[in-house]
């Protein structure tokens, strides 16, 4: 182990004896009671020394072993230390490591641990995400996932690419004839030259799927395959002037797309007919409302939800939709519970009795 102060947190002296770590009030910490010798010892926590070497250095500075041990304990308890020797292998290339350095620094703060964010980047590099739909939302979502270090990002959309599909983080129009998926893959390569565009050997299923198919509901056959294989999936779309991210579906555990359709049908008996008509490719893509900035905001939120899942946490869009509306960009979350009529199985899971963790005597009082 070679301890070092967490480099992602800027260090600032408030006075001669008080050092502040970080500027964001949500995680800023103060270390007080420091004297010049301890201040110099802090400078030696740079990841180049083992604990024994640090104790030797502290002794030369006149800091007793007990004070050194107390300082290291305080720093470790506050998650201010990283282990320069810890963590899985870095990205496949030096370029990727340099490109992802800010992401690594952010991960080290969001998910503190001795590896300094390397574990997060390693999980992302090993992940495989499939994106269905490569319009403004889908292509931008794929590019952002690749830029964030997701190792394999597969895009599927065989429709022809047109100028209306281009976007800041999506494909670029160059006048050539190509498929949407081809333009999206070109954008992926620009964002992350080392990203894999197809499944690596031995990977039979993705870790998650993004459904950005520009309709009120993707193909039932696709949804059935995802449910049967228990593959988590996330909806992302722009519906006229509202961007919608979610639900994030944990098959059999949270509300799925059909659950939402059933609730909407209960409120509006004509809903199934509207869904069928909306899926018909009668309208030109150029006539379909899709504000470029709103589409990019939806893509960013969709990518964030996927990264939350890949990083091991529960996405905010699980059992809900995040809705971003024009003209002011206001966002709200709408909750959706599993529907009793849906055969996805999530309703039965939601109705299971929950075991209380209360102490028996406390529960009886």
Describe the structure.
The chain has 365 residues and is an alpha/beta fold. The protein folds into two domains: 3-83, Outer Surface Protein A, domain 3, CATH 3.90.930; 127-350, Rossmann fold (3-Layer(aba) Sandwich). Helices cover 38% and strands 16% of the residues. The strands form three sheets. It has a seven-stranded mixed sheet. A three-stranded antiparallel sheet has the order 2-3-4, with no helix packed on it. It has a two-stranded antiparallel sheet with strand order 1-5. α9 (220-228) links the parallel β8 and β9.
Element layout with pairings:
Elements: E1 3-5, E2 11-15, E3 18-21, E4 29-31, H1 36-43, H2 51-61, H3 65-77, E5 81-83, H4 94-99, H5 101-110, H6 118-126, E6 128-132, H7 136-147, E7 152-156, H8 180-191, E8 208-211, H9 220-228, E9 233-239, E10 242-249, H10 257-267, H11 271-278, H12 292-310, E11 320-325, E12 330-335, H13 346-350, H14 360-364
Parallel strand pairs: 6-7, 6-8, 8-9
Antiparallel strand pairs: 1-5, 2-3, 3-4, 9-10, 10-11, 11-12
Overview in brief:
With 365 residues, the chain is an alpha/beta fold. The protein contains 14 helices and twelve strands.
Report the span from N to C terminus.
50 Å
How many runs of DSSP E, i.e. beta strands? Answer: 12
**Poorly predicted residue ranges:** 360-365
**Contiguous helical run count:** 14
Structural class by SSE content: alpha/beta
Say what the CATH topology of the largest domain is. Answer: Rossmann fold
Question: How would a textbook summarize the main sheet?
Answer: 7 strands, mixed
What's the assembly state of these chains? single chain
Helical percent range?
25-40%
Under the CATH scheme, which class of the largest domain?
Alpha Beta
Per DSSP, what share of the residues sits in E-state strands of 2 or more residues?
15-25%
CATH architecture of the largest domain: 3-Layer(aba) Sandwich
Order of helices and strands: EEEEHHHEHHHEHEHEHEEHHHEEHH
Largest beta sheet: strand ordering: 7-6-8-9-10-11-12
Silhouette: elongated
Radius of gyration from the CA trace? Answer: 25 Å
Number of domains: 2
CATH superfamily of the largest domain: NAD(P)-binding Rossmann-like Domain
Mean residue pLDDT? 90
